[in-house]
Specification:
Distance between the termini: 7 Å
Radius of gyration: 20 Å
Number of strands: 28
Helix content: under 10%
Strand order of the largest sheet: 11-12-13-14-28-24-23-18-21
Length: 424
């Protein structure tokens, strides 16, 4: 049985878009709570792991003390500037002591500290500490907000309303990736702390002008990170535009539930379940062929039953070898309904569990295939982290059979992705 830091509620699940890929959704039964870890100090901007609670302190007294706590957010200036503007971090702490750090640079999720089964807190998001200037370049996109279009657009071009638009070919000089050369991850976002009952967060706003990286329309995007007292990290996205434009916002966090440091090794022993009966077939450049493939027909891609990430990885033929594909979420893609389960990941040694729920139709599961283990990526080596990027399908502007990714004037883009943290 799983001991969880929250009780997972039941969610509405709608039918999957792709025919032939239906499968009963996994159970969302409530799970019991474990002991609550001690609250970390937030006097410093550096993420620090803390030991578990004292044996002399009873769980009942801790829970009683928690009743008087609430989630908090602290705004801290970093010792760096971009174009004369200060870099800042926002430290979110919930009443149980979980902590997340968000930067105004790139809308970046810099760290998330959660307890293991013994109550010891550790950061599980790969990346750079804010005192490392390399986080400004960040070639692996550690933790950033990708936009305007996360993932790839074939040949760096698309046609919309009869006009062809040309984008940067920043992926092997062949395709467009994650919004271009100076995309949303290379901007300082306007940022303000926000707080509500049972949560604390930061609201990030970015105005992308007409023609930015080749995209049409002035686009205003808002991304709000919320850390709740239910031990959820909610990421809420919204956007408006004055011209029709493709839009696909996502977070590019790399996770290692052992603890996000180079010496933790690979994530290939993490156990993952994907609530996905289909994935999107791609060519040698990771561009969709337009075909949705049932996972039952391709065993390395079948995570409908939980298995270690590395179990079938050796059967893949891509180079570098590893997962970098978009799966179709069963019941996903309806932003008017509650988020549905996309993935659940367990780490056997620490007991950490993470569930990802979303309103998006797809999830890009990436296993850090290109991480070289060099200083410019903070030493993280191949398969040193995994990504679960909730999103529209790759290359949707050029794939008429895919759900539309076009935001039009008068419309509001919305999506919600929730990370739930627990232990077993």
């Amino acid at each position: 049985m799983i001991r969880s830091l929250l009780k997972f509620g039941l969610l509405t699940v709608v039918a999957v878009l792709a025919s032939g890929c239906e499968q009963p959704p996994p159970s969302n039964a409530p799970l019991p709570e474990p002991p609550v870890p001690p609250a970390p100090s937030i006097s410093s901007g550096t993420a620090v792991a803390h030991s578990g609670e004292s044996k002399s302190e009873s769980n009942s007294s801790r829970k009683e003390a928690d009743m008087n706590k609430t989630a908090t957010v602290t705004r801290e200036k970093l010792n760096a500037e971009v174009d004369g503007k200060p870099l800042e971090q926002f430290v979110l702490t919930n009443k149980h002591g979980l902590r997340a750090v968000v930067l105004n640079w790139g809308g970046t999720l810099a760290s998330v500290e959660t307890p293991d089964r013994n109550g010891k807190l550790d950061n599980i998001v790969c990346g750079f500490s804010p005192d490392n200037a390399k986080f400004l370049k960040n070639p692996p996109y550690f933790g950033v907000t990708c936009g305007r279009y996360g993932n790839r657009i074939a040949k760096g071009k698309f046609t919309l309303d009869g006009t062809e638009y040309t984008l940067a070919k920043n992926n092997n000089n062949a395709n467009h990736l994650h919004g271009g050369v100076k995309a949303f991850d290379k901007y300082l976002w306007d940022a303000d702390p926000v707080q509500g009952e049972g949560w604390a967060g930061v609201k990030l706003t970015l105005v992308s002008p007409d023609g930015d990286e080749g995209y049409p329309g002035t686009l205003t995007s808002v991304v709000t990170y919320k850390l709740t007292d239910k031990n959820e990290l909610r990421i809420e996205y919204s956007a408006t535009t004055d011209k029709a434009t493709p839009l696909n916002l996502t977070n590019h966090g790399y996770w290692n539930l052992k603890g996000a440091r180079a010496e933790s090794g690979t994530v290939l022993d993490h156990i993952i379940h994907l609530n996905c009966d289909c994935y999107i077939a791609v060519d040698d450049e990771s561009i969709p062929t337009g075909k949705l493939t049932a996972v039952k027909d391709d065993s390395p891609m079948d995570f409908t039953k939980a298995k270690p990430i590395g179990q079938d990885l050796g059967k893949l033929t891509n180079d570098p070898q590893g997962y970098d594909h978009c799966w179709v979420i069963n019941g996903g893609g309806d932003s008017t309904k509650a988020p549905v389960l996309a993935a659940e990941v367990r780490e056997p040694a620490t007991g950490r569990v993470m569930r990802v729920l979303t309103t998006e139709p797809g999830v890009q599961f990436y296993t850090g295939n290109y991480l070289p283990g060099t200083p410019d990526v903070n030493g993280f080596a191949k398969h040193g982290g995994f990504c679960l990027e909730t999103q529209k399908f790759p290359d949707s502007p050029n794939q008429p059979s895919f759900p539309s990714c076009i935001l039009k004037p008068g419309e509001t883009y919305r999506q919600v992705t929730v990370h739930e943290f627990g232990v077993e």
